[in-house]
Amino acid sequence: MGDILLxxxxxxxxxxxxxxxxCESWWRRRRPAPPAPCPHRAARLAEHAMPVDAxxxxxxxxxxxxxxxxxxGAPDTRAP
Length: 80
Fold this sequence. Notes:
The chain is an all-alpha fold and 80 residues long. 70% of the residues lie in helices and 0% in strands. It has helices spanning 2-30, 39-65. It is elongated. 0% of the residues are buried.
């Protein structure tokens, strides 16, 4: 009897998950989230800030790991 209940519980769970997804989709369509204030402006600001942040990360990593790449006795070729 336990095997039959286990075998029947899988389709019931799949069916219940489908019903839940359909109801949630219906609920979201009937009650959409309020629009975000200025989404395009925020995206543009984030887009412009991303290269600056990435440059800071790369510069910081280069500064911290610079000693690993120094060859003893080699002339200093870094730009001032």
